[in-house]
Amino acid sequence: RGRRCKGRLLPLSRSAAADTFRPARHGIMWPNMAKTRIKKPPKYAALKRLALSLPGVSEQGHRHGPWFLVGKKVFALYWDKEELWILKLPSHQVMMLLEVRPEVFKPMKSGSLLWIYVDVERLDSSELRDYVTAAWRTAAPKKIASEFQREEKRA
What is the reported pTM? Predict the structure, then answer.
């Protein structure tokens, strides 16, 4: 019982500096650590411009590269381990692309979802735009996607 009760407030001493907790600084290496070097993804500027032009899209940084989200759902991301972009497309389109152009597209399975690795270096800008828009439509809420489709028909 000779120890102080942890829940009870103690009066401040005359020197307020004595009452503040200062953790030891030895051994902390975080400020001096080398920063990870993520290579700039191929066609990053074009893909970023395309993705952010779609309604409701935001970009999020990740340790393996940038991710593009609509709401809370990811539809395009860069994976630096494979050095390829990953798109979330409808499964029937994924299967068709794997048969037609296996040199550009590779399958990527995450749980029960089938995504697709894309070598964007082999795609021209119109193909890239079409695939990014298709991936966005897959992940976007139906209301936003239908509004976008109506605006696209008007133009």
Answer: 0.71
- Interhelix angle 44-52/125-139, nearest 10 degrees: 50
Q: Is 132 exposed, middle or buried (0-12, 13-18, 19+ CB in 10 A)?
A: buried
Among 151, 125, 127, 121, CA closest to 54: 151
Handedness of CA 56, 59, 60, 66 (dihedral sign): positive
Beta strands in the chain (DSSP E): 57-60, 67-70, 73-79, 84-87, 105-110, 113-118
The strand pair at 67-70 and 105-110 is best described as unpaired
Structure confidence by residue, pLDDT tens digits, 10-66: 555 555 555 455 555 554 444 554 455 556 788 889 999 999 999 999 998 887 889
